[in-house]
TrEMBL record:
Pfam families, sorted: XendoU
Organism: Sinocyclocheilus rhinocerous
Name of the top EC class for this enzyme: lyase
Matching PROSITE patterns: ENDOU
SUPFAM superfamilies named in the record: EndoU-like
One GO CC term on file: extracellular region
Domain called EndoU: residue spans: 30-302
Record's protein name: Uridylate-specific endoribonuclease
Subunit structure as annotated in this protein's UniProt entry: Monomer.
Recorded family membership: Belongs to the ENDOU family.
Amino acid sequence: MKIILILLLTITLISQGYSDSLDFLLDSVSDAEIKSLSETLYKLDHNRATASELVIDPQTLISSSETGSKDDLSSQPLFKQVSSTLLSKPTYKALLDLLDNYRRVTGEAEDVPSQEVQEQDTFLQQTMNTDVGRELYNFLHSKGVYSSQSEFIQDLKMMWFGLYSRSSGKLDSSGFEHIFAGEIKGGKVSGFHNWLQFYLNEKQGLLNYYSHSFNGPWTTYPDVLGMQFEWDGYFKEVGSAIIGSSPEFDLAIYSLCYITRPGKKCYVSLGGQTLGIQTYTWDNSSYGDGKKYIASAYPATP
């Protein structure tokens, strides 16, 4: 019976092609395994912020019905203190080097010189130098999704940094830009789900924190906030982000959910608390053998 099942599986993989075979492999990743792995990643995030390295002041909490009011209800910045020691860690530095590479308005084609390509490679390699990055790869490798670490890194590079068009047919966007750096589309802030980008822009006087409509149950970092803010004249009604997590943790959690539950809500466990991560696929273009770029990923807050 086992031999027959193996033969049937082999025929199925060959006849349906790479994309369908990958779907088959990912179907074998259970919800319980995702929760277990995310809990392990949470414990392995040695570069997360401590209470002495990061101090925030969430101030005004509003209801979900008030998120579109555009009222500045917080007189102080969200970030009171961020340690320079934290920001000098290799993955943090690699992320900071990337965040100023983008034209935020959709419809304006991105220019990617060789230096920026190198910064992408450095960021991905630095994440793989951490326990978080290695643990995620080892899990996906054990499931047969990737045969080598180099294959995994290359797929992450395409998935996150591959360019596609959100407006006017221009290669103006990528998953990384949308999620980590943020964009402006239709007169509104689009994406923007990274706390370091929030901190940098607030420090530069480009971002004004208004309020929050969700504060997660976590009492240490990483925490989760659903925030209202104005970014250089453009409003974000609910911008959710994991706060105090390391860059490698954000990349790993979003990648885990996107790879195993693309376009769906994925439930992870952080410190014994469940968090939903919503991902979206970019369906208008693809890379490789029909693989989909990541369109968005963020903590799903009420």
